[in-house]
Every structure is written in structure tokens, then in C-alpha cells.
Amino acid sequence: MRINPEVMSTTISVPPGLRNVVVTETTLGDVRGDEGFYHYRQYSAVDLAQSKTLEDVWFLLFEGHLPTAAERAKFIAELAPLRVLPEEVRAVLPAIAAAGPTINPLAGLRTALSLLAATKILPPLWDVDPARRKADAMLVCAVTPTILAALYRLREGQQPLDPRADLTAAASWLYLVTGKVPTDVEASAIEHYLIATVDHGFNASTFTARVITSTGADLVSAVAGAIGAFSGPLHGGAPDRALASLDEIGTPDRIDAWVRAKVEAGDRIMGFGHAVYRTDDPRSLMLREIARGPISHGPGGELVEFATTVEQRIVDVLAELKPGRNLYANVEFYAGVVMELCGIPRAMFTPTFAVSRVIGWSANILEQAADSKIIRPSAQYVGPPPPAPVE
């Protein structure tokens, strides 16, 4: 990190939400919103999603280069035992899954990971070398899908499944949730989605993870903080809400009236607009093509046809009602469609997003842990004047 804090020794005012404020330097990737492009390290993220496996991209972010065949085989072999739940964590999952009136896998994940950190005695990042940090990150990323799927199945009155070493990470996720080995088409569709959502610049959850990391805390504390930020409906918690909008609209003749009513009420239309992109979200474009592909052959074809009709009409009506805003479908809109077609229940849409994003969080944690400077911005006080100092 080469940004010199001496240059910013005086306070400055910044835009709300820190928009366009550069807070650090990274080698992990970037989002170029005006161009509708983003990348992981020096590779187009969409190109990687279309040509590589999730394990390849995971290796790329952790190691800095794409793996050779031998490196890939070794990496996958290292991951297999890490996916298995420690007995201490497995024993308390039924109680975690049963908590609360409705299923909340992300809240349960925070709890289970905290227990994992205590069980495995994960030390503060400040106290350990890069090799131990990476080992802890590998463990957390590998076991996260197992925990999430187990919590869901327990809540549904089903027994959790053990990970299968013969399945890819994407196929394993579908198996752990649904109990069925997915078809190649289903596994490929979910793998495209998972790779496309591994990382995406300094979003709220990634920034949260890096702030916590800068304090020297343990890796799970940073990941748990990221999960908390990610769970919000304005961040990772949108895919199921976007699909719910299709249910609410119901038929094509209701689209325009539905959009106008939402805009007039000041409501956000989930699955549209993005904090960075001012053109089409490249992730959405890719997922739309996947939704239109072989996976839609059969009963899912009607959902895809309706979704594409709704997307175009919403974009057109928003262009009329909000000229100059450039509001297009974002990743959540077609993510929900693809996951629905692959048999993932809606309660697990956002957890599926977390399965990939935990890899990006961890890569950012590892990068941030190499910097010894704590993140400590300032705030401008605008409340009632305090009392004068006592002389």
C-alpha cells in the first residue's frame, strides 16, 4: 500500500458514501463502471467465468496467478478435507438452525464461523505470518458452503449432507443444498454465477472486512463483519427480492403500472440500478445469456421469457421517469432467475452469493493484513455546540 498518509494530514470533506474516494491500492481487481467492465487481477472477470473453474479463480486471487494443471490438482486436494465440518461445530448446528421464527442462514453462518474460530483457535491476523493467514482463509472459504447448506437442510427437517470430493465446488454446493447431484448444465450455470460474484471492488462488505482486518483482528471477525454488511437488502440481500418482483407483477400487461406505482411511491425496484455501473452490468448480461441457454429448456422457459420482457419494460419506463439516470438490470435480477432454474430455494439465493464472495473477502483480508496502518477516518460534527473548554 503506497498511499502516503502524510499527504492527507488535514481533514477534507468527501461525498456521501465515499463515492469515488480512493482509500487504498489493490492488486486484486477493479470495476470500471462507465465501461461496464470489471476484472480479477489482470483478467476479465466475465472471461474467467466463461472459461475457468471456481477453483481456478480462487487460486488466482490467493496466489496471484492462474494455476497449472499440477497446481490445480494440489489445490483441490487441499480443499477437500477443509470442507468437512469439525464435530464441535456440527454438534451445535441444529440449535443454530432452529433459532428464530424464520430461516436466516447468514446469521447462522456468523454464529457457526465464530464457533469455528474458537474451536480452531484462529489467532489475530496481526500475530501470525502470511502462511497461517492463508491457511485460515482457506479453511473459512472451504467450510462456508458446508455450514450454509447444513443450516438450510436442518431447518427443513432434513439431515445435512457431507461434501463429496468427486464434485467441483459449484456442483458440490448444489448437491449440499438440494440433495441431488446436479446436471452438467446446472453445475455450469451456477459456476458461472459464482465466479462472476467472487469479488467486485470496494463494495460495502469488502470494505467492512478490510476495516476490521486493519485492527489486527482474527480472520473470522473480519469475515463475520463482512457477512453482516452483505446481508442488507441494498447489498447482497437482493436476488430473492428481485425474483419476488416478477411474482408481484404476474403478467406482462401489469409491468408498466407496477413500475410507475413503485417510482411514485419512492420505492426501490430491486434488481435495477447499481452504485458503480452507468451502463449494463456485465454480470447481468452474462447471466441473461445463461438463463436463455440450455438451462431454460423445459418448464423454466416461461420464467426466462417473462423475465426478459419485464427487464426491457422496466428499463424503458425508468428511462422515461428518471431521464439521465442510466438504470439497468444488475446482477441480482438474472441471478435469481438462474438460481431458480437450478433448483436453489429462494431462502438460499443470498447464501449462494456468499459462497463465492467469501473468497473475495478473504483475498482482500489477506492483502489488507500486509499493511500495518489501521483504517481511521474522521467525521464532521454537526450537532449542538459543545460547552467551552474549562480554562
UniProtKB/TrEMBL annotation:
Signal peptide limits: none
Keywords from the UniProt entry: Transferase
Pfam families: Citrate_synt
Catalytic activity annotation: oxaloacetate + acetyl-CoA + H2O = citrate + CoA + H(+)
Tree of life domain: Bacteria
The protein's annotated pathway: Carbohydrate metabolism; tricarboxylic acid cycle
Family recorded in the similarity comment: Belongs to the citrate synthase family.
This protein's name: Citrate synthase
Protein species of origin: Kribbella yunnanensis
